[in-house]
Amino acid sequence: MTTGRLEAFSDGVFAIAITLLVIELRPPEVDRGSELAGALWDLWPNYAAYLVSFLVIGVIWLNHHRVFQQVVEVDGPLLVLNLGLLLWVAFIPFPTVVVAHYLGDGGAAARTAMALYGGVILAAAITFSGIFAWVTHDDRLLHRLPPPSVRRATRVRFTIGIAVYAVALGLSWVSAPLALAVHFAMALYYAFDQATVPADPTAEVTDG
Amino acid sequence: MTTGRLEAFSDGVFAIAITLLVIELRPPEVDRGSELAGALWDLWPNYAAYLVSFLVIGVIWLNHHRVFQQVVEVDGPLLVLNLGLLLWVAFIPFPTVVVAHYLGDGGAAARTAMALYGGVILAAAITFSGIFAWVTHDDRLLHRLPPPSVRRATRVRFTIGIAVYAVALGLSWVSAPLALAVHFAMALYYAFDQATVPADPTAEVTDG
Amino acid sequence: MTTGRLEAFSDGVFAIAITLLVIELRPPEVDRGSELAGALWDLWPNYAAYLVSFLVIGVIWLNHHRVFQQVVEVDGPLLVLNLGLLLWVAFIPFPTVVVAHYLGDGGAAARTAMALYGGVILAAAITFSGIFAWVTHDDRLLHRLPPPSVRRATRVRFTIGIAVYAVALGLSWVSAPLALAVHFAMALYYAFDQATVPADPTAEVTDG
Amino acid sequence: MTTGRLEAFSDGVFAIAITLLVIELRPPEVDRGSELAGALWDLWPNYAAYLVSFLVIGVIWLNHHRVFQQVVEVDGPLLVLNLGLLLWVAFIPFPTVVVAHYLGDGGAAARTAMALYGGVILAAAITFSGIFAWVTHDDRLLHRLPPPSVRRATRVRFTIGIAVYAVALGLSWVSAPLALAVHFAMALYYAFDQATVPADPTAEVTDG
């Protein structure tokens, strides 16, 4: 298995999961035409859930490439770990639609829905950290390991990320919108972090 | 991140969004078999919406390649801008189905549906212009900028496009079918424009 | 636009359309567990429609590659023609589900459904012939045209194909199952034709 | 047809089928918010079916690459056999949703659903063995056949796999959960088998 094939398959799953999010959005049924605008506004939990999940999957895709562009060899455990990540990513549309369905209710259902959502994102984040830990645990898969300081910094970053997702999960039982806002902020942060940090110089060896 | 990977992921989203359009089309329920032909004709707003959105996404795909075949380096802001474009493109099936659902009603609902549709297309067009502005704002991403006259001409073309989409958005409140017809005409125009204009000579450097 | 990118995007649409066919298949609702087997058998029109459409799209994919592996340059009209083909292919799931829904009724609805199906397949076949006619009308896109005898034979083959699809369309008003059987036979024929005819020797120049 | 194109198309179908599994998961409708957690737990047959089918398709994908990375030439029968495999793989979401729908019922419906599921997996496994048998029946497609001992061992492995799937199919009429557990165990076994067995040394010639 070459990295290219693993990435192509993973990209397929990312692209489909990110695009499937929208098919949960159904046209609202209204009797009088003048009510459609209001009915469309009332779908705001759907738009919010769509936007956050789109960013979340988009950021996982960005980070996936960031890691895999340094991987020159794919072994069995990495295949299984990657399949585990895809399992969670492909699952994201379900908690997304549950949140979209119940976020507007505000009460216990919204908090339960957000807890499901937060749990799935946390599971994806932990699996992703597992991928990073595996590919950097010796120099067999990368051929040239990033310097220890970079690896340490990245692990700290992953750990902080997991901690924040765990906090977001806990926040679900306090306030569903707040928990969703934390997920949104995290995704935005990672997206812009990708946007400002220069490409990892160690990546260039295998890039092409 | 290489251009190839960005394009492959974007192509995946384009291909899925363009193909998902049809799953909103449901077989009409009729009691007597002789009524099916009529019921299938009554779905004309669905066919119209499908056709226009198919062309719109197809043209965005064509233009996306036209721009990205000249891009030799992908930086962070370009990644985020491209993710923004994909967000709008992946969202297009929703306004499409809202239009398909309400266009036949003719009244206020049809106009509201078209305004939603026009707004999303306008947002996609503005994001696309942002991508073009970013990749041509200096020679870092293209390595060889198109001559100033070509860049100016393309920017004028983008600005006119955005203006027409804004007009189509305004027309939604006047006549929904007319607004949809403008979107159809725009997509046809861009498709045939791609079909007659020779490939940009500056593209050839990075083409291969 | 390189052939590779056109093919990758087209393959994406083919793969999605062929895979989306199954999501129209819904689990039957039964009250008593012992009735499920019977209810699953009663879905035979769905399985038949799924199988035929799967083969039809699969064969279009095979033929698409057969033609495009000889194409070394993509021009504007080819892009637009290819987008037209994808429009019909991505649309196939709709007539498929209409046929699946009404084939079991046997009467006028089944015939109307098959006429819709036959019309879409015929339109796809005509568009495909248009692609072949365009890429072989001079040596600009292929760089090395197949010998006149091969081109003539292929055109005759396309014309016969279109004639058979037209006959199948006409047969829809006589017998819906018979018309579907003709589509099935055509798809099987093309699949095995691909399987026995050796790869076109002229293809090898651009193959790799 | 090059191996690369066949793999890209097949990967597309695998990625879509594996990602489509989740769209069958619908948010449960509850009246009181406090009931959502319970309603989400009640969906356990859906999660179980999703997980098993995800692993099954994932493992077919892994094995597909394992075989095709050794294939240097694609002939007609291989194309048709591969299309047959994709037909079954793309069909898997249907038995999955039938199982998800009826597994919780426990009775005759659950057993019928599992028999449908087991039959489709068995058909996919037999088709896959057909692919392996075809590509190894002489040295035309692989250019360098694996040594007879390796081929023999792989055929024994395929035969055992088919036998276990046949047993799982038979078990459906005894106990639906047990049959699903066998499918789960098989998929896990193959996944970890891939994860521990070193890459086939004969694969390396065509790899890259």
Brief descriptors of the model:
homotetramer, 208 residues, mainly alpha, 71% helix, disordered C terminus
- Proportion of residues in extended strands of chain A: under 5%
The DSSP helix count of chain A reads 8
**Low-confidence parts of chain A lasting 5 or more residues at pLDDT below 50?**
197-208
- Give the CA-CA distance, first to last residue of chain A: 18 Å
The total count of strands of chain A amounts to 0
Mean pLDDT of chain A: 87
Q: What fraction, in percent, of the residue positions of chain A are helical?
A: over 70%
Major sheet attributes of chain A: none
Overall geometric form of chain A: elongated
The ordered string of helix (H) and strand (E) elements of chain A is HHHHHHHH
- Helix/strand class of chain A: mainly alpha
Specify which chain pair forms the largest interface: A-B, 43 and 37 residues
Oligomeric grouping of the chains: homotetramer
Radius of gyration of chain A: 19 Å
List the helices and strands and how they pair.
The structure is a homotetramer of 208-residue chains.
Chain A: H1 3-20, H2 36-41, H3 44-68, H4 76-91, H5 93-102, H6 108-135, H7 148-171, H8 176-196
Helix pairs in contact in A: 1-3, 1-4, 3-5, 3-8, 4-6, 5-6, 6-7, 6-8, 7-8
Q: Would you kindly provide a written description of the structure presented here, covering whatever features stand out?
A:
- 4 copies of one chain form a homotetramer.
- Helix content of chain A is 71%, strand content 0%.
- The radius of gyration of chain A is 19 Å and the shape is elongated.
- Residues 197-208 of chain A have low confidence and may be disordered.
- The two termini of chain A are 18 Å apart.
- Chain A is built from 8 helices and no strands.
- The first copy, chain A, has helices at 3-20, 36-41, 44-68, 76-91, 93-102, 108-135, 148-171, 176-196.
- The first copy, chain A, is an all-alpha fold and 208 residues long.
- Chains A and B meet through helix 1, helix 2, helix 3 and helix 8 of A and helix 1, helix 4, helix 5 and helix 6 of B.
